[in-house]
Amino acid sequence: MSNTVYHSTEKSLSRSRFLDQLSFNSLKVKDYVVITSTLIVMVLSIFAFIYFKPDIERIHFERMSTWWGATINYIAVTLLVLQLAFLAYLLFLYIKYKPIKSVSDEELPLISVIVPAYNEGKLVYETLLSLAESDYPKEKLQILSIDDGSKDDTWAWMLKAKALIGDRLTIYQQPKNMGKRHALYRAFKEGNGEVFVTVDSDSIVKEDTLRIMVSPFVVNEKCGAVAGNVRVLNKQDSLIPKMLNVSFVFSFEFVRSAQSAIGSVLCTPGALAAYRRDAVMNCLENWINQKFNGKRSDIGEDRAMTNMILKQGLHVLFQKKAYVYTNTPVEYKGLYKMFIRWERSNVRENIMMSKFAFTKFREESTTGSRILLSMQWLKVIMAYPLILLLFSFVITHPIIFLCTSLTGAFIFSSVQMFFYAKKYNISEGFLAYTYSIFYLFTLFWITPYAIATASRSGWLTRELPTA
């Protein structure tokens, strides 16, 4: 993982101004070279698609003359229609979405902010300081941080933060590394807030983030959990964080906004989430003792908690203006390990959600939740057929595969590009195209592999760097 941290003395900027600047264009000359190369490849692929159109049509008609070819074609058309219809549905929900405004200091409840840490070093210190400097009423803010048996100097940095912040911060040290879920469990037991807020130990919040996160619990008595808006802190470190930032904007500000419109955000992110105390306590023991295929679950604690809160008939919302900036992997190895963990959790929790999603689990309509889950399952179910079809196409018609797949990537990534460009800046928005090619050729295997290894445990990205 990257070790980007905020240093006010080095940057001569307040934390707030520093975070605000992360929304500006951060591209370097080499990034523009990559983007230009990407666009050239995309344009060439479109021209190639037009050039090979007669051959593509010939292959299509040849396959349509066989039963298996016709079947594949009908399935492909059906999937395309479903994806377009789902995108239109999300757009409809996105338009309906309205974030909840911050309530007054008097209305804000007592909260316990929880920061689990493992081998984070100075990053946890920066996280704790950003929380302590929030504009949340000091008398209503309790901060708990748990060192989960770190092998580095994390505990020393937590002690330094404690000396600076004082009684508002309580720190604990686990006797050994037990996993993030156990660290959170201890803090849930120790915290006395009406609302729990969890923040990753490599993340920085804005001054108004906590009050914005907590306000929905005051306004909506059926609100059980809230997801924050995750952006990338270490954009300057490499191209990968820059691409992830564009992807995060779409997955949070578009997808989760749409999910929030029906009170069914499927996953509260580990980087920033909030939970109503009663909702957590209702499922806490089931959550800590959760098993998959007979083994204790040590990944996907955020999605698991979200599922258990949805099952109680409560709403899970998204607060677009509750920003948290988190460090992401800067190298390919760290990235694919993170994605494997996420996808394994996705497979597991799709199964768990399926056990209640098709029952009357809440008073309001459950149709939207079922649609969201069904589209999650569609991705899982089609993972192997699509990858087999991909390989067969690569072997039989490699050039046509390249031009058609790149043209398709251009069309669908244009949605993300225009969304990011409208929200922030067009220059970084072009990275949506770069990321689509990067994912197509280097990360296509993640979902099939995660399905095959869904029972495996392990965080994968928490090792200390080797010399």
From TrEMBL:
The keyword Cell membrane applies. It is found in: Cell membrane. Keywords: Cell membrane, Glycosyltransferase, Membrane, Transferase, Transmembrane, Transmembrane helix. GO terms for biological process: extracellular matrix assembly; hyaluronan biosynthetic process. The chain crosses the membrane at residues 32-52, 72-95, 371-393, 399-420, 432-452. One of its GO terms (cellular component) is plasma membrane. InterPro entries: Nucleotide-diphossugar_trans. GO terms for molecular function: hyaluronan synthase activity. This is Hyaluronan synthase. It comes from Chishuiella changwenlii.
